[in-house]
Every structure is written in structure tokens, then in C-alpha cells.
């Protein structure tokens, strides 16, 4: 038996590429996205009373990981990328059906004639992600404080030392203060969750690049200290 699903909306996210996305939702509160609802589902009446909820379940497609097929076992980053577990004992995007499920904050609900946008926080969603459905989060059944979490018992993330090059600081200083603060917090949170491959030798200096919002960011790790080398807006790159 086969089913066909029509996306109800598209995610416009601060994460423009897969590298840097947190491995679970709500790990980075500053990670925001806009869910644009598509016709014919962009009817205000379909979202009546939704604004009374603080959180949502988002059912989506791993569209950037959906072409390589599935594997019965995967290597979770939480186990160092070396130990295999069954795909159904993981949240890997490489699944028989590339469907994801995330809890996110509902920050705002924008309703107008034939225009519905949901502003979300704490996302782990790539820009352009197709959304299949949303459902309200119900704490009395969805929150289970004494649940067992297998090999992922503790939340990732740790305190880090983070510094910026003088060139990166100049870019931040040109931004409106609130925007600069928000970008700093987003960068810090992403790096605290350490998007680097788990198998890397931490004793070696390593450099990486990622795109957040409209900025390309290059950073390095040396002896456990994170340093942003370069921060460049996409507009500046396009103008060169």
C-alpha cells in the first residue's frame, strides 16, 4: 500500500545548510524559522485557536537526505560516530521513509487573507524543508519526565571559550545592536552543541565553515577554544 503526501508548508530557516544544525530541536532557543503555509491550506480558519498553544509538533521531510536510500544500522554522533545501532533506535535522517518529527516553540502566528505564517523557535530544520503536518504539543501527555533515553540520556552542549577576529568584530559592530546580539547568541549556541564530526581528533587545529541567516561564518578550534575567523554577509559576497 502506498500513500502520497502533499506538503502543507515550507520552512524558511536560519540554517541554510545541513552543517551546524543542532541534532535535536529546542537545543538552541535562538534558532528561528518561519513556516509559510501553502495553498490550499493557507486559510485562517484552519488555524483557529492555534495561538493559544506555546509549542507544536512539526512533521517534515528530510528532503536533503532523501535520495541515498536507507540502512538498517547507523552510527549516532552521540556514540562517537563509531558504534552502530539499529536505525529505529536512532533519529537518523537516513530512514526507510525520510520523515522527521520536532517539537518547536510557537513564537507568533501571522494570519491575513490567503497568507499564513508561523514563526517558530528552537528549530532543527534546514531552510526549504517541506512540512507535512503540525499538531499542538500537549504537556499532560507529551511530556514524560521519567522516560528512559537509552544512549542519549543527557542533553548535549557544553560551556566553551569563544572569541572573534577583529575583522569579524567589525562586521558585528556594523549591525544594529539587537541584531548583532542575536547573531552572537546563535553562533555561540551552535558552537556549544559542536557540529563537528564526532570522529575528529580534538588535539588538532581544525577549520570549518557554515552559513547562518545571511552570513557565511568561518571558525576554527584550537585546543578546545573556538575562534570565529571570518564573518561575511551574502550580500557582500554577491557584490564582489
Question: How would you explain this protein's 3D organization?
Answer:
By secondary structure, this protein is α+β, with helices and mostly antiparallel strands. It has 2 domains: 9-142, YaeB-like (Elongation Factor Tu (Ef-tu), domain 3, Beta Barrel), CATH 2.40.30.70; 161-239, RelE-like (YaeB-like fold, 2-Layer Sandwich), CATH 3.30.2310. It has helices at residues 139-142, 166-174, 177-192, 234-239, and strands at residues 9-13, 32-37, 55-61, 73-74, 85-86, 99-112, 115-121, 130-136, 161-164, 206-212, 215-222, 225-233. The strands form 3 sheets. It has a 6-stranded antiparallel barrel with strand order 1-2-7-6-3-8. The longest helix is centred in the C-terminal third of the chain and has 16 residues, at 177-192. It starts with 8 loop residues before the first strand and ends with a helix. The mean pLDDT is 92.
Amino acid at each position: 500500500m502506498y500513500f502520497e503526501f502533499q506538503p502543507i508548508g515550507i520552512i524558511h530557516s536560519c540554517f541554510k545548510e545541513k552543517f551546524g544544525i543542532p541534532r535535536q530541536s529546542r537545543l538552541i532557543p535562538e534558532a528561528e524559522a518561519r513556516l509559510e503555509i501553502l495553498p490550499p491550506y493557507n486559510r485562517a480558519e484552519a488555524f483557529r485557536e492555534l495561538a493559544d498553544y506555546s509549542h507544536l509538533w512539526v512533521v517534515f521531510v528530510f528532503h536533503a537526505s532523501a535520495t541515498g536510500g536507507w540502512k538498517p544500522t547507523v552510527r549516532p554522533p552521540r556514540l562517537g560516530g563509531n558504534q552502530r545501532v539499529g536505525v529505529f533506535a536512532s533519529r537518523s535522517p537516513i530512514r526507510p521513509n525520510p520523515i522527521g518529527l520536532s517539537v518547536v516553540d510557537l513564537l507568533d502566528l501571522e494570519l491575513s487573507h490567503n497568507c499564513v505564517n508561523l514563526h517558530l523557535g528552537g528549530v532543527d530544520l534546514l531552510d526549504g524543508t517541506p512540512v507535512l503536518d503540525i499538531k499542538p504539543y500537549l504537556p499532560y501527555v507529551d511530556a514524560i519526565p521519567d522516560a528512559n533515553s537509552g544512549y542519549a540520556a543527557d542533553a548535549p552542549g557544553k560551556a566553551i571559550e569563544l572569541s572573534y577576529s577583529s575583522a569579524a568584530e567589525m562586521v558585528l559592530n556594523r549591525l544594529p545592536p539587537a541584531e548583532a546580539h542575536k547573531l552572537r547568541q546563535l553562533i555561540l549556541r551552535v558552537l556549544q552543541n559542536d557540529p563537528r564530526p564526532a570522529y575528529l581528533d580534538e588535539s588538532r587545529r581544525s577549520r570549518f565553515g557554515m552559513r547562518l541567516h545571511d552570513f557565511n561564518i568561518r571558525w576554527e578550534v584550537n585546543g578546545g577554544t573556538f575562534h570565529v575567523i571570518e564573518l561575511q554577509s551574502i550580500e557582500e559576497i554577491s557584490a564582489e
